[in-house]
Amino acid sequence: MDAELRRLSELPMPGGAYIAEYVWIDGAGKLRAKARTLYKKFEVATDFPHWNYDGSSTGQAPGEDSEVILYPHAVYADPFRGSPNVIVMCDQNTPQGTPLPSNSRHDCAKVIEKSMEMGLEPWFGIEQEYFLVDRKTGKPAGFPMHGNPDPQGPYYCGIGANHLFGRDVVDAHYRACLYAGIKISGINAEVAPGQWEFQVGPAIGMEGGDQVWMARFLLERIAEMSGYIVNYDPKPVKGDWNGSGAHTNFSTKPMREEGGFESHIIPALERLGKKHFEHIKAYGTGNEERLTGKHETASMDVFKWGTADRGASCRVGHETKANGCGYFEDRRPAGNMDPYVVTKMIVSTCCEIPLPE
Question: Residues 42-65: pLDDT tens digits?
Fold first, then answer.
């Protein structure tokens, strides 16, 4: 940003005014946003005013009846415009109040709400892997124009200009998430050049889906400034490279309590095994290219769980087994998964809560 644009972007706000950026998911599962000026302050997200947009331009409504209504559900401090401005995570509904087919948050909230009523208090820790792709070359950052870089090995948690690419974007994203109020718990470089991961959690209930979507929004906005495209596809680089997943760590209150491993975690894993293929269908597109049984994955054709086994469908840590309580990790979700769908499915199956019809 040149000096004059920066000066203009930092002009003081007139008395009482602030900007609210409304964010939602479009018909293709991509993020959209637009901003409005507000003067009244609101205590909770659901008190923010509804707003509308042209659903015919987002694949969510026909042109002759294109109005879609945004319902606010979560509010974050805006790291781009600074205080007192905010970013608002919304879902999408018809003018009559019916959730759109692409509104995956609605059914997720029903399942999560039921689990809360049962006193289960689900926690999530979601590990979002992604590639930063150079907009000019169409290749991941650090990949040469022709051929491939050195094989994977030195990149995971590595350092040095010959191995790490895009760290400025990653660190800016980390701080932006913390400023916004997202429960980001860490970041690391992954096994290929230009591949990174951030973790959100422990996140309680609907925080899991809301905060991963908002963290993605912040990441894509920051990458936009640097000329990168963010790619969450499960296997964007073919060949002998790991794909991108969204490993989802999960526990309920009974799992975290004494004896939870035997009495709650193992039964939950057994239930997941019985509904393996239902989950695979809901865990992201193109996942068959990633879940091959190679590159730290289990084959999508089978379900297995194990202790500290990164080739399992679900992994239990040594500490959880030794303590007799804790959490487990579902390693099957793809990087492009919808966190509302994944958290809904895990809670529904593990907690025996029927999915909404």
Answer: 999 999 999 999 999 999 999 999
